[in-house]
Structures are given as C-alpha cells and as structure tokens.
C-alpha cells in the first residue's frame, strides 16, 4: 500500500474472509454501521452479529458476537459457497460486501439509515442486495436475541404487519416483493430470494423501545440507503485535511463519527463490550461509555479536521458532566454515572469470559483526567472559540483541585488495581497546570490562582525528574522504584513536557523494550496477557516525528497501517503482532484518534 492510501478491499489476504471458527468470526472481518445513536457490526459472511438498539449502550438485540449458538443475528448470504470483498462506499459509512458465488456475483449494500433532516426518530437497519452478474440465490435468517436469557422473544400479528418483541423493544421486518418467508416463529424468521443483473431486493428492520412504531414503506427505506450515503459524503466533504494521508484521515474520522452519540454529544470509547484483550483471558471490559480521555482527544481531532459542530457538542456535554458530577473517569452516554460492574452468563467471543456490563474503573481516580480536560480546552480556544463563564469557572476550580491533589497516588491511564505514583499521571498533572496558566494568561479562565498553578507546575516537573527518571536505564520508568516501562509516556512529547533529551531517550527505550515488529505493548510484562495496544504505536510514531525523526516515523507509520489493512478501515483496540488478528473492543476510538494524530503530525499539521 502506498503512503497515505486508505485501506481498500483489494488487499490479498492469506485466509478467506468470512470463515468462522467454532461459530466465531475474526474481529477484523467486521464492518461498523451507525446512525448517531447505535452501532451495528456486519460480518464478512453477511451476518450482523452485534446491534444494541435503540441506543449504543442498550442491551443487544443481536449478540451472536458473544453467543454464537443462541445470540441474535440477521444473516443475508448466498445459498452456497462464496467468497467476499468488503469496503465502505467512498466518503461514507454505508458499507458494501461483494459476494462471488458459483453462478454469479451480487452486492450487499447496508446502512443504519438517516434522513435529509438528520437522525431518524426510530431505528432503521436497511440491507439491499443488488445483482451484478449471473443468478445468485440468497437465504436470510432473522434471529431475535434473548438479551442474555432475560427476555423471551415473541411475535404479534397486526393489520399492518408482524411485529417481533424482545422485552420493551419492538420491531418489524420489512421486505421487498421478491423476498419469500419460508418459516416464521417467535424467535426466528427465515426466507429466500434471487437476484440477477438489474434486479435488487431489500430487507430492513424498523425498531423502537417503549414508543409508537412507524412502519415505513420498503421503497422509502431503500431510498434512504442512498440518502444516508449522500449525507455521509456531504459530511466528509466538509472536512479538511491536506497532505499525503488525506483519505486515511477521512476514513478514520468517519469511524470516529460512528461513536458520537448524537442525542447528548457524548463520545463512546467503543461500540462493544467484553471483546478480550487476550483470547481466553479475563481482560474483557465494557467500553460503551464516554471516557474523559477519549472525549478530549476526539474533540481535538474533530477541531483539527473542521468538524466544529461535533467538537462543540462533545465539549458542551463534557463540561456539563464535569459541573454536574466532578472529574470522574467516565460517564454513561446519557450523562449519568456508570453502574457497578455485573457479569452476564453468555460464552463470550471465542469463549473468553467474563462478559461484563458496567465498568469497575468508573470508581477510580486518575490524574490523567486533569490533563485531558485542559488540553481539550486549550485546543478549543486556539481554534478561535470562546469558553462560557460557567465552563471557565469550573476549569479554574479544577486546576486548583489538581494543584491540591497531584502528590497523591492514582490508578493511572491503564486503570490498574494497584495505586502508584504513575509517571504518566504526574505528567498529566503538569500538563493540566501548564495549560491552566496559559489559559489564564490569555484571559480564557479566571487568573485568581494563576501564580499558585505556576508554582505547582514547576514542582511537578521537578518531582518527575527526581523520582521517575532512571539514570541507569536512561528512560522514565512507569513509576518510581519500578523496572517497568510505560508506552503512554510517549504522549508527553505532544504535551510539550521534558528537557535535556530525556524524552528522546525514553522513546528509544519504549521502542526497544516494548516493541513487537511495528507495534508496541502497553507496559513491561503485559505480553503474557494481551496483544499490542494500537494507540501506543501511533503515540510513539507521533513522538518521533515531533522530535525531528520524520522519515523514521513515516516508515513505521506506513508499515503499521499496511499491517492493519484488513479491508474496511475499522480498527480494534489491539493487534496480535504475529498474526495481525484484532483483539479488544471495536471500533476503538482511541486507535482511530491516534492514527489521525500521527497522520496529521506527519503531514505537518500536529494537533
């Protein structure tokens, strides 16, 4: 792949896409569909295996991703052997799968639909099959999930159609005239149809929860696939990014847009729960919440590429949550606090348990939230925008809180159970106080305690250099007294921390001790438990570029992007450095953000 090209479906792969092992698809075989409210994962074999409806953090209607035998799904596939290629339509989140069967070829075009006026007030999952060559017979299966055995799906017959029910959620399968139903039961509906060149058939699910249900005509639903495509194209056309990585940046921006929860402006960390960081291991977390860190980085990325409306909505949501609840690590998408973690009795992806709802880290304290908030605020005003009085006062109070508490231990960016004086956390406190001083000096926040913030900023820097630097190893350590290295310290270069070449030496140590090919583990010793953390690789690449090693950074960036190219441009949290298999939740916002940040820096436009 040439530098700057977005991933495409033309890449030759060693294995055939869409092949299941013990009922599970590889994570890299999924594309993501979204409408600003929910996200569905569509597999390369034509099966939608994950869809939380009506909202991104609702219980799943389709959960075959975590329960292959009993989980809900919506399968549309040729009735016989086939091969596939996948791609997003250019500039769009409408997705296309090309099925090549023995007697012909057909395209599955699918979308979580929107309208010209924006998000629909109901869920509309639309799937259109277009004949391209020969004659291809398709089968379909709609299996309604039991939401981890908490509901029992059933059908009701009305004058306007057959409805399915899963607890409080109700929906209807809409179909074009050529689609035949061969079996219709409470939990499952099956059928078939045939396409040839010039013909097409459309199936769709319209759903809602505890609300009246609109049942649009199938022709209107089919048309909205094209409307959605044009709306996505119009959105991406308004973005601006010059340089060799333009297509790649726009594709990653489209992936991030899927994670923006439009009813509130919250930004989900990922669209899934409990996809493992290591197969069979216990590191399976629920990421369908809004982290301050991810929200802050996303706001900066949206500002950089000209998505000002999304940036403003996300920043307003974040400021309101901070005023309402204080600096928690994460919040629910509706703004409430994240519930206690519970375990769900389903097998998990590739039998990796436990499957979780909620997140135990919601109760942790992480100093990094201070730096993330202030870096975001600084970027917002640097783009010519203004902070309101309430937000400015809240930020001033937060800076003083950081000045009061930076000496305390915390759980760190990796949310570890053992509290320590993590180096990254101290750097984040320095970052927060440094940005607070700059905001005060430029009249953006009250300057009452500006001088105290400056003094504490300098004390933090001195403490880090005295306690966290290893003269023997010539690197900053994960925390004082440890032998561990921590890849997140690479972020300090972007934060403008460090002097005397110490960050240069630290980056080299991270590359040497945590690297696995072009990728990197999060911290020392974790390779026994999980794969490489993709964001870390792009943080290190960006740091190299900022330190003046642009050509080296560019080579590493191009190699990593080529290895990530599985056909759709949707990235997970982690990658196996030996097989390039994805692990962890997806689409993972932090990965897409890190790619945008590194690409922007390599293009001469650091965020």
Automatic annotation (TrEMBL):
Recorded hits in InterPro entries, A to Z, give: 6-hairpin_glycosidase_sf, 6hp_glycosidase-like_sf, GH15-like, Trehalase-like_N
UniProt protein name: Trehalase
Q: What GO biological process terms are annotated to this protein in UniProt?
A: carbohydrate metabolic process
Q: What is its EC number?
A: 3.2.1.28
Q: Which GO terms describe its molecular function?
A: alpha,alpha-trehalase activity
Domain Trehalase-like N-terminal spans what residues? Answer: 25-190
Residue spans making up a coiled coil are none
Record Gene3D superfamilies: 1.50.10.10
